[in-house]
Amino acid sequence: MCVVANFAFAGTFEVALPALAHARFGAGGYGALIACLGAGSVAGTLAATLGSSISRPAIAACLSFLVEGAAIALVPFLGGLPGAAVAVTVLGICNGFGNIILITLLQQWAPGYLLGRVMSLVMLAAMGTYPGAILALAVLGALTQRVIRSFGAVQTSTGALETEPR
Asked: How many whole angstroms separate alpha carbon 114 and alpha carbon 110?
């Protein structure tokens, strides 16, 4: 879940949101959206302190991630900068809340002697897979295409491919 969320978040906030802001809101609008994300994240983190009173905290965190996904999907359709700012603020709230709840649950679950390793794995999944995993997927996808596999290979007079160029 962490890897997929990282891909979605990175693609949205590293590519799509700046492109949308450049086309519609300008640099000031982009700055306002980033500020809304930060403010929402702080609010969500503070809201996560209520996590101890939630009977099913993992489900609450996952539901907040679903709302987060809906919020970011709505950004281009909410009538300009004010609507986008509200959606990005909701995204930040949900992201801060869900992350704090799930990381806390993970840290409570992991045995103390494995906590460093577990958290290192989470950090790798959260930050280390992008862009490395994207690159690996792109290369593996390209290698499924015959035209890529045979690109630059020398053909013999019979049409077979040679492994050594002449």
From this structure: 6
Pairing of strands 161-162, 154-155: antiparallel
State the Cα–Cα distance between residues 98 and 48, nearest whole angstrom. Answer: 8
Say how many C-beta atoms besides its own lie within 10 A of residue 29's C-beta.
17
Hunting for tokens 């450049």 — which residue is that?
Answer: 22
Task: Give phi and psi for 155, each to the nearest 5.
Answer: -95, 140
- The residue ranges of every structural domain in the chain are 2-128
Q: Are 112 and 106 in contact (CB under 8 A)?
A: no
Share of the chain above pLDDT 70, in %: 88
Task: Show the tokens assigned to 162.
Answer: 């040679």
> 72: which DSSP letter?
H
Say if residue 67's pLDDT is above 60: yes
Task: Give me the phi and psi of 80, to 5 degrees please.
Answer: 105, -160
Q: Is 8 exposed, middle or buried (0-12, 13-18, 19+ CB in 10 A)?
A: middle
pLDDT over 90, % of the chain:
46
Give the model confidence (pLDDT) of 85-96 as tens digits. Answer: 999 999 999 999
